[in-house]
Design brief:
Length: 257
């Protein structure tokens, strides 16, 4: 039986084309917030039966991941979307990859975005800076870089190599802040101590809080030391009120989606 694509199905295909791989729960949060997860799985299986999506699950203990199928690619290409790829293998750094898309979804649900680029999108758009953020997005005249910390590198190395590059500035792009995200507050506390209180660009939160509450919730710390992390939490909008306001997309960047 032919699959009837709704406008929401088309938007799911567009997002997955940009995100490459999304879990069932990520798709539910973005497109079916009031729907039971079993109903979401049923709809996704229908799209997979028509080859609009493909599903990969490493084991019964892992999330199911969905990516663009051949028919989904064909539908988007007919709508004018270019440079699409079919992905067969899940990313090697799956936790890191999934967290970046969690940030994407939280941003889309919280604010009206001027743009959102993941690191894999930036690499395709002529990005020439020495540092490649995990993500870069803008809304309401403010631009933020994202760094998701998996705890695999020294906090001092992070502070020594990444933050000076952000403080030096990105060509043609003023940053309101650098979102430093980890899976636990104790790691954020260590990062904040290494970065130091003088770094006003650093903004901290956990991926769980961002995923569950979004950018408008009071889940962010700034100031760059452990005392700040134990203090008042505010929303990203409040933290960025005094920052450099620039949502201008650099001329080299073009989001094909």
């Amino acid at each position: 039986m032919p699959v009837r694509l709704t406008p929401r199905c088309f938007e799911i295909l567009r997002l997955i084309a940009a995100a490459r791989w999304l879990t069932t729960d990520q798709i539910r949060r973005r497109f079916f917030p009031a729907v039971a997860i079993d109903a979401v799985r049923k709809r996704l299986r229908v799209l997979a039966s028509g080859r609009y999506l493909c599903r990969v699950q490493l084991s019964r203990m892992h999330f199911a991941y969905w990516t663009l199928g051949r028919e989904g690619k064909r539908v988007l290409e007919r709508a004018g979307v270019e440079n699409l790829m079919i992905h067969r293998d899940l990313p090697k750094q799956l936790e890191h990859f999934t967290a970046i898309n969690d940030v994407r979804i939280a941003a889309e649900l919280s604010v009206t975005l001027s743009y959102f680029f993941s690191c894999w999108e930036l690499q395709k758009t002529g990005w020439s800076e020495l540092i490649i953020p995990d993500a870069l997005f803008a809304f309401e005249g403010r631009t933020f870089a994202v760094e998701f910390d998996t705890g695999t590198e020294s906090t001092k190395l992070f502070a020594k190599t990444k933050m000076p590059a952000y403080r030096s500035g990105l060509s043609g792009l003023a940053l309101s802040g650098v979102l430093i995200i980890s899976d636990r507050e104790s790691r954020l506390d260590s990062l904040a101590n290494s970065i130091g209180s003088c770094d006003s660009l650093a903004v901290y939160t956990t991926i769980g809080q961002l995923r569950d509450q979004g950018l408008r919730a009071s889940i962010f710390w700034s100031g760059g030391d452990s005392k700040t992390l134990n203090g008042t939490r505010t929303s990203l909008l409040e933290l960025s009120c005094g920052g450099d306001k620039s949502s201008r997309r650099p001329a080299l960047y073009s989001n094909s989606l």
